[in-house]
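Help! Submission page says 'invalid entity' but I think these are all valid:
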Amino acid sequence: MAEFNITINGKKLKVDVDPSTPLLWVLRDHLKLVGTKYGCGIAQCGACTVHLNGSAVRSCQIPISSVTDNKVTTIEGLSENGDHPVQEAWLEHDVPQCGYCQAGQIMTAAAFLKSNPKPSDEEIETAMNGNICRCGTYTRIKAAVKTASNSHIV
Amino acid sequence: MSKVKTGIGRRSFIKSVSLAGGGLIIGFSWLGCARNTEEAEKELGMQMPDEWFELNGYLKIGDNGIVTIYSPNPEIGQNVKTSMPMIVAEELDVDWNNVLVEQAPLNTAIFTRQLAGGSQSIRQGWESLRMAGATARQMLLTAAASQWEVPVSELSVEKGVISHSGSDRTIGYGEIAKAAVKVEVPEEVELKNNGDFKIIGTSRKNVDAKKIVTGQPLYGLDIHRDDMLIAMIVQPPSFGMEFKNMDAEKAKEMPGIKDVFTIDTYPEDMEKEWSDTGAFSKLVVVVGDSTWQVMQAKKALKVEWDLNPEMVKQIEILEKSPGLMDSGGLENSDIHNSLMAQVGSKKSEMIRKDGNPEAAFKNAARVIERSYSCPFLAHNCMEPMNFFANVTGDKAELVGPIQTPEFAEKSINKRLGIDLENIDIQMTRMGGGFGRRLYGHFVIEAAVISQKMGAPIKLVYTREDDMTNGVYRPAYHVTYRAALDGNNNLTGFHVNAGGMSESPLFANRFPAGAIDNYLAESWAVESNISIGAFRAPRSNFIAGAEQSFLDELAEEMGKDPIEFRLDMLKRAKNDPVGENNDYDPARFAGVLELVRDKSGWNNGNSSQSRGVSAYYCHNSYVAQVLDLTLKNNEPVIGKVICAVDCGIVVNPDAAKNMVEGGTIDGIGHGLYSQLSFKDGTPQQSNFDTYRLIRHREAPKQIDVHFIDNGIDPTGLGEPPYPPVIGALANALYKATGKRMYKQPFISELQGDFKT
């Protein structure tokens, strides 16, 4: 066990865990930020996607020891009132079915739109390809990403 | 208006009225009423009432008119948590904006069928949900009439406000609720005419959507209690093996680990429920403080496994197969496939026979025979199996994702000897179900572990545990034969279907009833690989096979595939063969005609390769036209046009979402997914080797059209899945000139299919 000082959603926090513990489990078990989901544990499904300094990463692959002073943003911290343009677009298109993968989808989409604010359909599909939706909401996800890309404030 | 006896829910109404008594009813959401209330105030801009009045088990009304409706059935992503309360709200006549929804816990005294399965929640809940709303409405009206001393017939309701036609008096539901609680439950209530619906048939957003997109705790895996421990299992690596012994010393000394032990989930003398399907009863369990610590300890365990004599004995047929001689009864996919291909003709049981199929085939000018097969599939819910259990003395508290809470309760009663009334089961939103969570062995495992630890625990499966845990969609095989006379008329039809270890046959479905000489046969091969219901059980394979065969048959007969089916349906309608045909030919034809028109089928309205398919299951009818092109031997699916007859559509946009999802799910599994075995060991255990459909592979566009016929609702969660595999196979044939006989099709396309 070791102490780590980390910054999650703008808050400075201290956790005492094994250095190999993935960020995913620190968030879920120790910080009770359970919006970040466990799906596969091997960076194949994207359910655990968070932002590290604004970039989408798989939190199941990041040991807490390597987080250091990088800024972590989770779905809970994406916006103050749940009104990030991507979240708004998700609500507008009523995307979720079971909903389990959607936090990861939203985090991937939000980081992607920041780097490519006006993507083509093909670029959206490629950017989102690492996030599995078992219910098959892919067409709605694409529509929601397009809507968010037109919101001019991503 | 139609009058309906309230008898079905009578017990619940009586009970809840005596419960209510005008007092404050405590919410039983696992997140807690206070939190819900707080969130509702903040997010929905609702003012919470000071007092709630429960008029029956389905709803309570606040003194300010806010209504809470309890959604009885488990939510697995089919959106019943929104659509079931919509039905109650419709008959109650309230403003949907004033409705809060809470998941009801298991309560068999109030609710009749708290189960997510068979696409039946809306169909079977339709009457009781309407009655619950109408009964409460009637009680509110009676109370108002009595207060104003006027006849009930002079009152009307608009959005939760009662008006008197003979005066300008109005009163809100919230103001009269206290008096309404004391009104006797009506023996009979009137239900609305379809034309008067104000909520049913209008699109309403998923009631949990805001929580989902902001990452609020909703799922079983999100449960946390301060004194809770994490438990994980270690199971045999192969089907046919069982626990022998272990060295747990190192694991037990690891940080955070509380204990390592074995459990027997289902002792031999336990009377099982049908839902108690599990591949491995004896499991190694590791319990510790946190998930990561337990995961590490699992890896440090040294477990020895042995052949399970019972499981190996089961597979007598397999043992006679040369390929299994040296494997000691552990199964391989290549043996499965060759066995299935051989057994059908030898071991079949006749299920249905019309006319004289033998003569038809004997006298045929031509016989067309084709065989189709598919592999085992894992459900792969995105949220792996898990459950929270807190067993203390003679009480059990169980919270988590389960499609069959009522059966889980009975199993807990039998396994732990705890009285039913002391077992509290609460349902969380589920990260997918697809049939996997019908089989609640993990609920029993969690309870047994909690009892042993004397502590609240959350049982968590890793993805690998989940994918290699069995309860799979069976591997199936079907052979179709068609007899054609010298004029290319279809004179006989023969279907011979089976699988490991159940048959996918539906002998009384189309094209039964449309062909004079018809023979349906069924068989099964034993296996020690455990199977279970997977979205649209049996249909999920046989629809695609049958619809591919009919496509090939139509081509051989020189007919348009849609006209060919419509001609047969005409026959089934006007002069049906046999009496047990379980489909309505007119409704079946309806979806085919709609998809034909919407896709511009007759105008050759697509530059892409196009396939059609239609199927009836779960009381509903779906037809699909799928367009694709090929790029480097990989299909690129342009568009799928769906025509659906599921009767009245309660929540159109959500229903459309369900059809889109089912379509993508069917395409994905038919095209990409398989679970194969070597020496009893699943060869895929995570998403690096098990291929699920991804964004790029999904159709670019899905159009959904519903038949508007006012018939009471039928199933929707499952029906869009089965037929699309046929449409896909038929479109792939157009693109490649090659018929698809083996799923997953991608292996056939890329020429690397391994049997």
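Support: the input was valid. A stray whitespace character was the problem, and the output above is from the cleaned input. Chain B has three domains: 2-200, 220-310+380-467, 472-749.
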